[in-house]
Amino acid sequence: MVLLALCALEMAMRYMDRPRGVISGWRATDTRGPINPFGYRGQSTKPFRRSDFVVVLTGAAAVECVACPPDETLDVMLERALRQYNANVRVVTIGSSGYGQDQEYLALHQFLDSRHADLVIDWASFADDVPANTFRLGQPRPGQLLPKPSFALRGNDSIGPTEGIGGQVYKTKLSTLFRPMFINLDRNWSTLLPKADPGSTSPPPSAETQSHVDANLEEQRTAWSIWLTPRPARVKYGMALTRALLRHMQDLSQLRGARFEILLTPVHDGRHTDVPMALEHHGHWFLADPATRDAAIGEITAGFHVITLPADADPAAAPEASRQMMARLADALNQRGLLTEVPPDHPRH
User: Fold this and answer.
1) 205 found inside a domain
2) Which residues contact 239 (CB under 8 A, 6 or more apart)?
3) How many CA atoms lie within 13 A of 127 on its CB side?
4) What is the pLDDT of residues 198-221, one digit of tens each?
5) What SS3 state is found at 232?
6) Contacts of 37 (CB under 8 A, 6+ apart)
7) What is d(CA 147, CA 163) in angstroms, rounded to the nearest whole number?
8) At a CB cut-off of 8 Å and minimum separation 6, what does 200 contact?
């Protein structure tokens, strides 16, 4: 009788569509600008021709570039810069603020299921990407946490996702109604992760400077995570997961006939220190060392093709910096011979 009653209640709630489902992930965070057919900030793309050389640029805030004018989104900037080397080039941007490689991989998979690509570039920012990939909730905007498709690490590979972008977090109306009352989605996911390093109660003596930061250091849910020394087990896990997701992106790209490159743009604007620092948050002290950060990036990207183009300003916040970076990226791609015409036997999907 109880089972029949629950089934009847589930059917009734589906008929009334109450409660509304909890959607996982997001696409464009700023829908006021131009949105391409794939749901991301960029110009509307005309149907591709077989002769088009298609470049897919994926990433997070730098790719979405909310600060860029509506008539000069990042795809427009890069396509203009690339056409001096290849007149048939087409650029598609697939990325959104707060993305890690988890949602980037799923978005790329969705794109390649219906379109072809010749070159895939992942514009990575591993200080942000590692915590973004680690946790069940993501941050499309400051102060906003939303459920997102997530992967877990098993051995050296990843399993998942929990659901697709735009999928339902809870599969039934009953679970949508009752599970949030008893289960904290984020806390439940954290039990699958290695324990966080709580830090120390006093500043590390080897630090040259001290700073109080508004960042969740004690859970390693911060862009400072890959700086922390010694490296916490949870950060090691996040790095391994990030590397596994990059491998999935590379394998998918190559399977569909595209080259895969990682773009890194370290910002040297005078605000970043080159000496070890003592960081404090809510009484928890950590040592943050730029050498540890650099070593982490090297470990994550080992074996991948990487293009490193230092920037003088954050491209995500400065349109001029984005414009300059796209011009430099076009030059680098040309110098590496990555803009060659598509051979006749190049696979099309």
Assistant:
1) no
2) 130, 226, 296, 299, 300
3) 18
4) 999 999 988 889 999 999 999 999
5) coil
6) 44, 45
7) 10
8) 284, 285, 286
Q: Is residue 331 situated within a structural domain? A: yes
Cβ–Cβ < 8 Å for 248, 105: yes
Q: Is residue 213 in a domain?
A: no
Confidence at residue 340, expressed as pLDDT on a 0 to 100 scale: 81
Domain with 264, as residue range(s), is 22-193+233-271+297-335
> Are β-strands 152-154 and 146-147 bridged in parallel, bridged antiparallel, or unpaired?
unpaired
**What is the DSSP secondary-structure string of 163-214?**
S-TT-BSSSSHHHHHHHHHH--HHHHHHTTSPPPP--BSS--TT-SEEEE-S
Instruction: Pinpoint the alpha helices (H) of the chain.
Output: 2-16, 61-64, 74-82, 101-112, 126-134, 173-182, 185-190, 233-255, 290-301, 319-335
Residues 106, 161 contacting (CB under 8 angstroms): yes
Residue 210 lies in a domain: no
Is pLDDT at 301 greater than 80 in this prediction? yes
Cβ pair 266, 310 in contact under 8 A: yes
Question: How many domains is the chain partitioned into structurally?
Answer: 1
Question: How do residues 257-269 score in pLDDT, each as one tens digit?
Answer: 999 999 999 987 5
Q: Could you read off the pLDDT of 34-53 as tens digits, one per residue?
A: 999 999 999 977 788 888 99
Closest residue by Cα to residue 93 from 61, 69, 130: 61
Contacts of 82 (CB under 8 A, 6+ apart): 55, 89, 91, 330, 333, 339
41 DSSP assignment: B
**Residue 147 to residues 24, 103, 170, 233: CA-CA distances in angstroms?**
5, 12, 11, 24
What CATH number is associated with residue 188?
3.40.50
